[in-house]
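[job 4471] stage=fold_predict status=RUNNING
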Amino acid sequence: MAFDLTTWKENVRERLTGWRQRMQQAGTTSVYNFLCAATLWPVVQAAQGGDWGATGALGAVLAGVGSNLVANRLQGWKDEADGARQLASQLADEPQLREELDAILQTVETFAHARAALPEADHQWFVDTLHAELKQLGSAAKFNIHVSGSGAVATHGGVAAGAGGVAIKGDAHGPITIGTPGKKE
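[job 4471] inference complete, writing structure tokens
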């Protein structure tokens, strides 16, 4: 089967099983860097195996960003841990590289898959750690948090409300609708 965006997403989802243990074994401390490398590793493997659809899938994702710095970096990777280490040394000096990685992570839905692959007890660690790293990188505003079912989310030191509740901290401007979407109150 040719490598395309659908197979890439599936490869990443499968690959993220046990990702935190692999990250720790590799001595990598950045969740963001490791997940970037884990997301790109199936592209590297497919390209090394002669499936050039991988580079096409990568190019299609990056077309909206307007650059392709990532593709040149992948050629020298030995494995995902090596990729994470290389990215760590390159991200600080190349903001456009981070833009590309953010676009890839969003398209492949890496963070959702990574969180789902963790035991429930690690979910808060993941959210807290990732949020701190994204904030430090300047990428925090690009990623959304979705909660299905009951629960609460607070970001940027904000206020959270439980299922069926509403919480607003600070000033609220513009139209505010409170209720169930699609349901007439």
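[job 4471] summary: The longest helix spans residues 31-48.
[job 4471] exit 0
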